[in-house]
Design goal:
The chain is of the alpha+beta class and 290 residues long. The protein has 4 helices and 16 strands. A 6-stranded mixed beta sheet has the order 5-14-9-16-6-7, with helices on both faces. It is globular and about 45 Å long. The chain starts with a strand and ends with a strand.
Length: 290
């Protein structure tokens, strides 16, 4: 199939606040979604593959030595070096630093079974597929986050002239997945798009009054961006992803002369037959250029 119509959840304009609250196994937004049926093209069918410079996206074949991606100890011991090496190779950067990972699954029973009492940011966790159009980093926050990560990881480093914050996304379950990942061609996203979306992590989701009310220190919280609908967005996906391939896509590239960020979202694949519940790992890494 060259393309299909899929319903993607944009943010509805006009909300008082655009916050996302996250606890173990659950995520709640303070804004309503604006579901839109849009064409999502099979990226495997393109005459020219998507690339990091042209779209902010690339597909790579990669076999990991990790046997169990639910095993946080094994992932933490093996996966960072693997991903950092691939990211350096794909981007041409001299250095790469990881900043954590997350497992997502559409299997509600599995999420419930794996719930923990405390959500630990960046160290695994099992969450539902993220089904809102978003980017995980807010553009205004990205330079500071990259600088802090560099200082922690390379305290004696020479500094950097450019950085790319990105996600290394891998399906751990067998294809076809019921909730694959849709990726928006970064060259179809205007620089003035995106709504500040602070992310509040906790052991439980607060009540609605607290979610909507004053939030001291909100400007210092981790934050991403959510997006309202624009018909100019060009959407792609890679159907039938398997464990031995991954998608690398950008959250933020300090070089704005190329595609520099990629809105993305999970979507329910109504065109595929006999789908299986999706499990995936998203690994966050920043590439640095001397």
């Amino acid at each position: 199939m060259v393309s299909q119509s899929a319903v993607l959840n944009y943010a509805q304009p006009g909300a008082a606040v655009y916050r996302r609250f996250v606890a173990s196994g659950v995520e709640v937004d303070t804004f309503r979604t604006d579901p839109r049926a849009v064409p999502v093209r099979n990226a495997r069918s393109l005459d020219r593959p998507l690339s990091l410079d042209s779209a902010g996206i690339t597909l790579v074949n990669h076999t990991s030595a990790v046997r169990d991606f639910f095993d946080n100890d094994e992932v933490g011991r093996v996966y960072p070096a693997e991903v950092e090496a691939v990211v350096r190779q794909l981007t041409g950067a001299q250095r790469a630093a990881s900043s954590g990972w997350m497992i997502r699954t559409s299997d509600e029973q599995d999420r419930e079974r794996r719930k923990t009492g405390r959500y630990v940011l960046g160290k695994g966790g099992v969450q539902p597929p993220a089904s809102q159009v978003h980017v995980d980093q807010d553009p205004a926050r990205a330079p500071r986050s990259a600088q802090q990560l560099y200082a922690r990881t390379f305290p004696d480093g020479p500094g950097y002239s450019r950085f790319i914050s990105c996600s290394f996304w891998r399906a751990c379950s067998q294809p076809p997945q019921d909730w694959p990942l849709a990726l928006c061609d970064g060259s179809s996203v205007a620089s003035d798009e995106g709504i500040f979306n602070p992310i509040i992590f906790g052991d439980a989701i607060p009540d609605e009054l607290a979610r909507q009310g004053p939030l001291p220190g909100e400007e210092l919280l981790p934050a991403g961006s959510v997006f309202t609908f624009r018909p100019t967005h060009r959407w792609h996906y890679y159907p039938d992803m398997n464990r031995d391939e991954a998608v690398l896509f950008k959250f933020y590239d300090s070089d704005h002369s190329v595609a520099w960020r990629v809105p993305h979202t999970a979507f329910e694949d109504s065109a595929a037959r006999h789908t299986r519940m999706r499990t995936s790992i998203e690994f966050r890494v920043t590439a640095y250029f001397d």
